[in-house]
Specification:
The complex is a heterodimer of chains A (238) and B (380).
Chain A lengths: L2 E14 L2 E14 L3 E5 L6 H9 L6 E6 L2 E2 L5 H11 E4 L11 H6 L9 H14 L15 H13 L5 E5 L7 H17 L3 E5 L3 H5 L3 E6 L2 E2 L10 H5 L1
Parallel strand pairs in A: 3-8, 3-9, 6-7, 7-8
Antiparallel strand pairs in A: 1-2, 1-4, 4-5, 9-10
Chain B lengths: L3 H8 L3 H33 L5 E6 L7 E2 H9 L3 E9 L12 E5 L4 H4 L4 E2 L1 H9 L3 E4 L1 H6 L7 E3 L10 E9 L6 E5 H6 L7 E2 L1 E6 L5 H11 L7 E5 H11 L3 H30 L1 H9 L4 H33 L2 H4 L11 H27 L3 H6 L3
Parallel strand pairs in B: 4-9, 6-8
Antiparallel strand pairs in B: 1-11, 1-12, 2-10, 3-4, 3-11, 5-8, 6-9, 7-8
Helix pairs in contact in B: 1-12, 2-9, 2-10, 2-12, 2-14, 10-14, 12-14
Classes of the chains: A alpha/beta (238), B alpha+beta (380).
The structure holds adenosine-5'-diphosphate and magnesium ion (MG).
């Protein structure tokens, strides 16, 4: 299986005033196409930072990141924006729907950046909402939906452009057990049925258990013997 | 416009705040429209004046008068086509609040000097024939419900003289619509022009290109006399008159600018609040691939729509209001000819759009250039 995401010796250092805060200390990792990877680790270990780098909303201090053969770590701000629009689907802990737009309009947001006309966009939105099981909630506003439903709308928004990779940061962190289960069911289905590559950050072992692989981050490094791209390329390429 | 949902949604996001912003804009622009319309009325008054007329008055002060003999000498100046004496009377009708412009004028030379005034020939003859006759503007006639042929008595203020007049006709002029003119002779007979003094002498020149030369020559002629003169074009004369009245124009302009400045500050505060509240949402949009320019554009369109809508409401309300509310009457004729021009409405719309751009520019720019990561972490 080919590697979709390649991360080579990535470091990330934040500067706050004159302090330098090293967050990622040389991460090397490969994510195969079609994988469902869980990133685990204690709070503050750098999970979100790593996910943001993969998703192209942040850039590493050093090291290279390639997604689908494209070196996104070298892209300019604008190039990254259009790359994200085409290749990345985002799922957040707090769903992050736009409260003044209804479900269909929220899902349509990424499509507004494409060349699709109104009719085509409508078709895509309906498909995406049907996949997450909310075809009957098109005109509902976020405040009229439950947390689980909001997260499913957010997932529809993430998949509506058929992106190369889905990134999810604690997607069940704000949900009760039942809704968390349903969300994970959906992610698993997207991975199995639609062959979506998913990278999910979580600190919940139960959630991580639904992924195909799990990686542990601690203090900015991957735990020993874990799914390292260079350390155990065999795992990566299976 | 594919982003319509988003813009509309954001406009109605906080209905109370949007409504307050719109109301504030409307109130301020009602006020600004009023001030600008008053300025336009002044401007008009001086703009539409005869381009071929000069007004000669005392160089000493506006209230110092000139001897009749000056007029004779002015007539001799080459380039002078016709002259007439004009005296400001400052009388009122019945009640001192009923103030309006009234003058004593050389009736026989009136038509020759003020060629831009239209008067029915029969009425003009009747006026000339009656020493105590007068001509009035159409607005004045309406205001006091006068009829041609009616006898009226004015109450003097500057001069101890209550003119007893008969309305002999109506004059028509595009701007001057509510003045009253009676005979210099009547004024003189009452003993007030007895000393042979007049406030101003008006001159029509034969060639407008030589106005400056004629004006200079007149002032030169009287420079060393007991009554030195200062000659203005009619345009300057009107402006002078206005500047005498406390530099109203400057005052009104600065009040308008202050009002707009104030509304910009208030709008900037609400727009910053509104941008700040949306930090996470904007970060999400940017994560989805919305470029800073697009985010900036969307926010600016929203802000400008908000202020433009308020401005539109205010300025149109003013236009409607002054169609019903008679400003001329309310100001005792001081603002005769007051109206809200479409140009003023357009100016106000432009200004209100500008308020949106200026007030919303910085918050929108900041929001658009916000770091996605910081926005999602809510550290801004
Ligand atoms: N913009 C930033 N500036 C400074 N420090 C930051 C910034 N973003 C994250 N950090 C720090 O980086 C560390 C890792 O953060 P994060 O990637 O969010 O961890 P996790 O998602 O595993 O909890 C934390 O100590 C956090 O305080
Ligand atoms: Mg995190």
């Amino acid at each position: 299986m080919e590697t979709l995401v390649e991360i080579h010796d990535v470091r990330k250092v934040y500067k706050r005033d004159q302090f330098e805060i090293p967050v990622l200390n040389g991460i090397t990792l490969g994510v195969p196409r079609g994988d469902f990877l869980a990133l685990m680790g204690p709070s503050g270990s750098g999970k979100t930072t790593l996910l943001n780098l993969i998703a192209g909303i942040d850039r590493p201090t050093s090291g290279r990141i390639l997604v689908d053969g494209q070196e996104v770590s070298s892209y300019s701000e604008t190039a990254l924006a259009s790359w994200r629009a085409r290749h990345v689907g985002f799922i957040f802990q707090m769903y992050n729907l736009i409260p003044v737009l209804n479900a269909a309009e929220n899902v349509e947001l990424p499509l507004l950046l494409t060349k699709l006309n109104r009719k085509q966009r409508k078709q895509h939105v309906e498909n995406a909402l049907a996949i997450v099981g909310l075809a009957d909630r098109m005109t509902h506003y976020p405040r009229q939906l439950s947390g689980g439903q909001e997260q499913r709308v957010a997932i529809a928004r993430a998949i509506v452009t058929d992106p190369t990779i889905l990134v999810a940061d604690e997607p069940t962190g704000d949900l009760d057990a039942k809704n968390a289960d349903e969300t994970l069911d959906l992610l698993q289905r997207l991975n199995a049925e639609f062959e979506k590559t998913i990278v999910m950050v979580t600190h919940d072992p139960k959630a991580a258990g639904r992924a195909k692989h799990a990686l542990h981050l601690d203090k900015g490094v991957l735990a020993e013997g874990q799914y390292g791209y260079e350390a155990e390329p065999a795992v990566v390429r299976t | 416009m594919r982003f319509l949902h988003l813009i509309r949604g954001n406009l109605f996001r906080n209905k109370v705040r949007s409504l307050l912003t719109v109301c504030l804009m409307a109130a301020i622009f009602f006020f600004v429209t009023t001030l600008l319309s008053i300025l336009a009325t002044f401007d008009n008054a001086s703009e539409a004046s005869g381009v071929d007329r000069l007004a000669v008055q005392s160089a000493i002060s506006l209230t110092t008068m000139l001897p009749y003999s000056h007029e004779q000498k002015i007539r001799e100046v080459p380039g002078v086509a016709e002259t007439a004496k004009l005296q400001w009377i400052g009388a009122y009708y019945k009640d001192s609040r009923n103030f309006f412009a009234n003058f004593a004028v050389d009736a026989d030379k009136m038509k020759a000097v003020w060629t831009d005034y239209a008067i029915d020939p029969a009425q003009f003859e009747a006026f000339k024939a009656d020493r105590q006759g007068c001509l009035v503007g159409p607005e004045l006639l309406k205001r006091f419900d006068w009829k041609v042929g009616q006898k009226i008595v004015l109450k003097g203020t500057i001069f101890p003289f209550d003119p007893q007049l008969t309305i002999r006709g109506v004059y028509y002029h595009p701007v001057n619509v509510s003045s009253l003119y009676f005979h210099t002779e009547y004024f003189r007979e009452a003993g007030l022009g007895g000393q042979g003094l007049t406030g101003t002498v008006w001159v029509r020149v034969s060639d407008t290109r030589k106005m400056a030369a004629v004006s200079q020559q007149i002032d030169e002629m009287f420079k060393n006399s007991e009554y030195p003169t200062e000659t203005f074009t009619e345009k300057e004369f009107q402006k002078n008159f206005i500047s005498m009245m406390g530099n109203i124009k400057l005052l009104f302009t600065s009040v308008s600018v202050c009002a707009i400045f104030m509304v910009i500050l208030l709008a900037a505060i609400t727009m910053s609040m509104s941008a700040r509240e949306r930090v996470t949402e904007i970060a999400v949009l940017k994560a989805l691939g919305y470029r800073p320019g697009l985010v900036l554009g969307l926010m600016l369109v929203e802000f400008v729509l908000l202020t433009l809508f308020g401005g539109l409401a205010g300025t149109l309300a003013a236009k409607g209001f002054y169609q019903v509310f008679d400003m001329a009457r309310a100001t005792s004729g001081f603002l005769a000819g007051f109206r809200v021009y479409w140009q003023t409405v357009a100016l106000c719309l432009g200004a209100s759009a500008l308020v949106g751009i200026v007030a919303g520019g910085y918050p929108a720019y900041r929001a658009a250039n916000l770091s996605v990561v910081d926005g999602l972490r809510k550290v801004v």
